[in-house]
Amino acid sequence: GDVLGGYNIPGGTFIGINSKAAQLGDVFGADVEAFRPERWLVDDVERVTLMRRDLELVFNYGSTKCLGMTVACMEMNKVVFEVRGR
Ligand code: HEM
Description:
Blueprint: E1 2-4, E2 7-9, H1 19-22, H2 45-55, H3 69-84
Antiparallel strand pairs: 1-2
Protoporphyrin IX containing FE (HEM) is lined by residues 58-60, 64, 66-68, 71-72.
């Protein structure tokens, strides 16, 4: 068992992450539902760090975290540049 966010979780409890909900935190701003990549271009290291922390939850966390996260991020960064270059 463990205590998560003040809640006592008995051992053996299945814990899941709602990836969509995890991406809707206040840290992304009031227009969180809008596709606005510029939200990452802010001169605020603390905020970007918090956004990145929430974003990484799409790859899950802990012992079942995605093993391909680094590859996936590299591919996505490459695709954006390739598409913008055309
Ligand atoms: C945007 C792309 C991707 C997303 C959002 C993603 C997301 C995830 C998530 C949420 C899990 C955990 C599933 C679970 O808990 O049952 C997972 C597991 C895994 N992913 Fe990914 N993935 C992506 C791309 C990739 C790529 C490109 C690779 C390989 C190169 C990869 C390899 C794996 C593997 C091997 C696991 C199993 C890890 C384990 O349980 O030991 N993923 N992925």
